[in-house]
């Protein structure tokens, strides 16, 4: 193995014969050992120097994609389908084996030929949403490297190898965007132009950490609901990479890398609500999405390393420590809070902190403000925020495997609630990490596989709450 790797690198200096994708090339027989080289198929084309400015024109179309008819809504079944509970899990085999060592059952296990495409509107719209996400990540990872200098990164505790890692993440996004574009076909959404809120490296890292959180969780929300198991397989193999990116950005920021036992999944419309505000415009023939944009939700006292951590001082209603609704990226100025402790030990990759700062705690008061529906958002300001919920009554805390609710103390478009104390499993506090909250009109019981049933009850949000 080592020898062939070494030989490959030695060959790297030889002129390459131009080769078509997937061509298998045998090297000169005069060499003591031949190396099989397989070139990858081409990647989708992409821009690297788009402007990053807000959209100022007039949209040529407005509103989410809709079908010819829209039903009245989805209601929970009266009972569990009997077939769901007939298998007897006693550790014995209950059916003949199709082959030695092969248990009966499974889907796509009988020799059928896998086809890696969308097989329903649900599949297409979910994959298209994921593609919008991959495109913004490709642009975002490059944008920070272009916008901030090496010195700026050094001051935030990141060295050249760290910057190279971010550049590599951008390359990973080229692969992800290509993969999903190929599965969707000719009308796959194209790369757009974006507009970001951050003004310095610390805010950039916080933005990346939060954007990759909803990118990852947005996919977990629909992955196992796809008709196309084939597409789900490839998407899983992309999103696990994104999960690693999210964790690395948390570490770059000085946060505990993975403070939860389970990564949460959220509905597509939640991911689209969080993503759309950063897309300024898309090409004129862009394929549009069906998903809902909910009204924006701002956390007025977002927990943040920049304000010293474990911020109990939540009552101050005049606070506004984020760059805006949705992602709620913490504002950072060089004078901010605990920053004087510097790069040696509290953030950046230079060292792992000896002690991580606790950011929030059960009993913390959280101050919120939300927008009215009817605002123009997203590419070319061509989507409109909406809600079908009644009046605001609860804050939904969506984290790990759980959705829990706390009462909302409402005053106009502002309100406050108290951070709950709940475990997912014994010894695993559910409220931690980069998680989701939303304002709801009721408190339906939801589990990871039916979490999208929350959508008709969302008044505003989601917002990303930095619990830890
Ligand atoms: C495999 O099973 C599917 C149903 O899950 C069926 O439609 C298909 O015909 C089967 N293929 C083969 C090769 O038996
Ligand atoms: C938009 O037009 C471009 C250029 O003709 C084409 O490559 C692309 O596939 C089109 N996109 C959609 C979504 O139709
Ligand atoms: C989150 O988890 C980390 C790591 O276990 C812990 O240090 C921190 O106190 C937790 N935060 C909260 C809010 O529970
Ligand atoms: C969105 O705006 C861009 C830039 O002004 C323009 O080229 C494009 O045609 C617009 N797209 C739509 C769908 O209006
Ligand atoms: C965080 O602050 C709360 C309220 O002031 C306090 O009760 C708690 O002990 C603090 N936790 C840590 C880990 O400092
Ligand atoms: C909360 O903030 C107010 C005003 O900034 C300050 O006077 C007070 O000391 C703070 N309380 C705590 C517990 O930090
Ligand atoms: C918070 O401040 C930002 C500017 O830093 C502003 O854009 C935003 O509207 C403010 N939010 C609230 C709720 O006041
Ligand atoms: C971090 O450590 C380096 C080397 O010990 C030192 O030169 C630098 O001044 C320190 N920076 C801060 C902000 O303490
Ligand atoms: C980390 O926490 C431990 C236990 O609370 C304490 O003994 C130690 O001094 C702390 N280290 C630093 C660098 O703050
Ligand atoms: C509810 O909010 C009001 C101010 O909007 C405040 O005076 C009151 O104490 C709050 N009540 C609770 C239970 O937090
Ligand atoms: C949280 O999720 C776990 C795992 O599904 C479940 O066992 C537990 O009952 C849930 N807790 C609450 C409060 O819903
Ligand atoms: C979601 O699923 C759980 C079972 O896991 C069920 O008890 C609950 O009623 C469902 N919620 C809705 C709104 O359908």
Summarize the structure.
Residues 1-19 form the signal peptide. With 468 residues, the chain is of the alpha+beta class.
Mean pLDDT across residues: 89
> How would a textbook summarize the main sheet?
4 strands, antiparallel
| E-strand count | 14
Order of helices and strands: HEEHHHEHHHEEEEEEEEEEE
Physical arrangement of strands within the biggest beta sheet: 5-6-12-11
Poorly predicted runs are 1-24, 337-345
Shape: globular
Overall tally of domains: 1
State the separation between the terminal residues, measured CA to CA: 43 Å
Radius of gyration: 24 Å
Organism: Penicillium cinerascens
Protein name: Protein rds1
Keywords: Signal
Signal peptide: 1-19
Task: Walk me through this protein's architecture.
- This is Protein rds1.
- It is a single chain.
- The chain has 468 residues and is of the alpha+beta class.
- The chain has one domain.
- Helices cover 26% and strands 13% of the residues.
- The protein contains 7 helices and 14 strands.
- The protein has helices at residues 2-11, 121-147, 150-155, 160-184, 201-222, 229-253, 268-275, and strands at residues 24-26, 36-38, 193-194, 279-281, 297-299, 365-370, 376-377, 383-384, 394-399, 402-407, 409-411, 414-418, 434-440, 458-466.
- The strands form 5 sheets. The protein has a 4-stranded antiparallel β-sheet with strand order 5-6-12-11, with no helix packed on it. Strands 10-9-13-14 form a 4-stranded antiparallel β-sheet. A two-stranded antiparallel ribbon has the order 1-2.
- Helix 2 runs antiparallel to helix 5 (201-222), helix 2 (121-147) packs parallel to helix 7 and helix 5 (201-222) packs antiparallel against helix 7 (268-275).
- Mean pLDDT is 89; it is low at 1-24 and 337-345.
- The structure holds 2-acetamido-2-deoxy-beta-D-glucopyranose (12 copies).
- The site of one 2-acetamido-2-deoxy-beta-D-glucopyranose has 3 residues, from loops.
- One 2-acetamido-2-deoxy-beta-D-glucopyranose binds at residues 57, 59-61, 281-282, 284, 286, 380.
């Amino acid at each position: 193995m080592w020898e062939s790797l070494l030989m490959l690198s030695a060959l790297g200096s030889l002129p390459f014969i131009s080769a078509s994708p997937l061509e298998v090339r045998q090297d000169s027989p005069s060499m003591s050992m031949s190396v099989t080289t397989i070139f990858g198929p081409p990647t989708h084309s992409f821009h690297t120097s788009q402007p990053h400015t807000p959209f100022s024109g007039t949209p040529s179309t407005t509103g989410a994609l809709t079908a010819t008819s829209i039903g009245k809504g989805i209601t929970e079944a009266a009972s569990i389908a009997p077939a769901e509970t007939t298998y007897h899990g006693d550790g014995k085999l209950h059916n003949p084996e199709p082959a030695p060592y092969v248990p009966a059952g499974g889907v796509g296990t009988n020799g059928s030929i896998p086809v890696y495409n969308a097989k329903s509107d649900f599949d297409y719209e979910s994959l298209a949403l994921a593609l919008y996400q991959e495109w913004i990540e490709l642009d975002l990872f490059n944008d920070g490297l272009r916008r901030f200098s090496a010195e700026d990164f050094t001051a935030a505790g990141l060295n050249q190898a760290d910057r190279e890692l971010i550049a590599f993440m951008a390359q990973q996004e080229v692969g992800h965007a290509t993969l999903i574009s190929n599965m969707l076909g000719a009308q796959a959404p194209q790369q757009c132009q974006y507009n970001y809120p951050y003004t310095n490296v610390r805010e950039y890292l916080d933005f990346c950490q939060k954007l990759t959180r909803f990118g990852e969780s947005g996919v977990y929300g629909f992955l196992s609901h796809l008709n196309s198991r084939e597409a789900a397989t490839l998407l899983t193999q992309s999103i696990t990479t994104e999960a690693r990116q999210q964790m690395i950005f948390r570490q770059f920021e000085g946060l505990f890398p993975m403070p939860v036992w389970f990564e949460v999944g959220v509905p597509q419309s939640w991911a689209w609500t969080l993503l759309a505000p950063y897309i300024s415009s898309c090409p004129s023939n862009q394929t549009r999405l069906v998903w809902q944009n909910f009204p924006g939700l701002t956390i007025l006292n977002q927990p943040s390393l920049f304000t010293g951590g474990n911020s109990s001082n939540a009552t101050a209603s005049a606070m506004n420590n984020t760059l805006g609704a949705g992602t709620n990226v913490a504002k950072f100025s060089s004078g901010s809070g605990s920053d004087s402790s510097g790069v040696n030990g509290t953030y950046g990759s230079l060292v792992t902190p000896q002690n991580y700062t606790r950011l929030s705690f059960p009993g913390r008061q959280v101050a919120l403000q939300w927008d009215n529906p009817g605002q123009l958002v997203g590419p070319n300001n061509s989507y409109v925020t909406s809600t079908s919920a009644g009046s605001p009554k609860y804050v939904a805390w969506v984290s790990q495997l759980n959705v829990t609710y706390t009462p909302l103390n409402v005053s106009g478009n502002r309100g406050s609630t108290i951070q709950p104390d709940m475990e997912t499993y014994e010894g695993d506090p559910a409220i931690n990490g980069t998680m989701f909250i939303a304002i709801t009109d009721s408190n339906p019981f939801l589990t990871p596989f039916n979490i999208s049933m929350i959508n008709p009850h969302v008044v505003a949000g989601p917002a990303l709450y930095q619990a830890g």
